[in-house]
Structure formats: C-alpha cells, structure tokens
Amino acid sequence: MRARHGGATLVELVITIVIIGVAIAGVVGAFSLIAGRSADPLNQTRAVALAQLYMDEILSRKYDDNTPVGGVPKQSGCTINTEEASRADYDDVDDYNAIADAAPENAEGTPLAADYSGFRVSITVECAGGEVGLAPADAKRVDLTITDPGGQGYSFSVYRANF
User: Fold this and answer.
1) What are phi and psi of 50, to 5 degrees?
2) Signal sequence: where (predicted)?
3) Which of 18, 92, 101, 123 fits 62 for a cystine, CB–CB 3.0-4.6 Å?
4) Are the CB atoms for 19 and 12 separated by under 8 Å?
C-alpha cells in the first residue's frame, strides 16, 4: 500500500500564481492611476488662487485710460488700448490685454514664489456690454486663462462695468 503525501500539485501551483498575478496587476494599475492624478487638486487650488490674485488686481483698475479717478464723468465708448509698458505701469483694465502666456507676477512685475513655477497666465480684454444687459460701450469682459505645469488650462471670466 502506498502512503499518501499531502501537498499541492503542479497544476494547483500554476493556477495560484496566475490568480495572484492578475490581482497584483489590478492593484498596481489602480495605484498608478491614483498617483498620476494626485497633483491635480493641488494644481487646481493654485490656479484658482492665482486667478483670484489677478482678477482682484484687474478689477481695482480704472475702466479706461481716460476715466477719471472715481469714474465720474463716465468714459464714453469702449476702446481697448493695450500699453506695452511694464506691469507696474498698468493703470486700467485694457493694459492687461498684453499678458499672453507669461510667467505669474505680482502687481509690481516681480515673479511669484516657487509655488507657481511652471504656471502660465494669458489675459484678453474685449468690449462686451451687450452680453450683460448694458450698452455695448459700458462693459469689458476680461478672460483669464491659467495653465498649470501639466498643461491643463483653467478659464475664468469677469466683467468690468463703466461706472
């Protein structure tokens, strides 16, 4: 009579190795997907903060070069006169139309901290009073696009009224 030896057969071992391999491949795939997107929320947060910085600065400026301090009397007409001066000289909304694919800077033209390295800023200004129920000459739309280091673009728009 033969003695039975307990253990696993070669077929059972191969099946076990295949099952474990498939499970590991699934887990590694999930981790790589999560790791690839881990920077997205941080970049989104930084893009929103950067957009807020620029929009606050732009909205604090005059409607037009000829608009007096306080805005009265109201400037007639809507013109976009982009001045190619330094950033510190921007005194009205139109001037920001010159920013295209630029590195982020503060209002004085000094580059922002390393937290924003790799980010790019583009701004366009257009006459758009009719879009918000005002006379065509009474509002400008400012479109701001922030591009993060990964190439993802974030778009923001705001209207500046002629008051």
Assistant:
1) -65, -40
2) none
3) 92
4) no
Q: What is the pLDDT of residues 21-73, one digit of tens each?
A: 999 998 888 877 776 666 678 889 999 999 999 999 999 988 888 887 776 66
Is the full-model pTM beyond 0.85?
A: no
Tens of pLDDT, residue by residue over 91-146, are 889 899 989 999 999 988 889 988 899 999 999 999 887 888 888 788 899 999 99
User: Quick one: DSSP state of residue 161?
Assistant: E
Instruction: Please give the span between the terminal C-alpha atoms of the chain, in angstroms, as a whole number.
Output: 106
User: For residues 98 and 81, is the Cβ–Cβ distance under 8 A?
Assistant: no
Q: Any idea where the domains of the chain sit in the sequence?
A: 35-161
Q: Which helix (H) or strand (E) holds 127?
A: strand 120-127
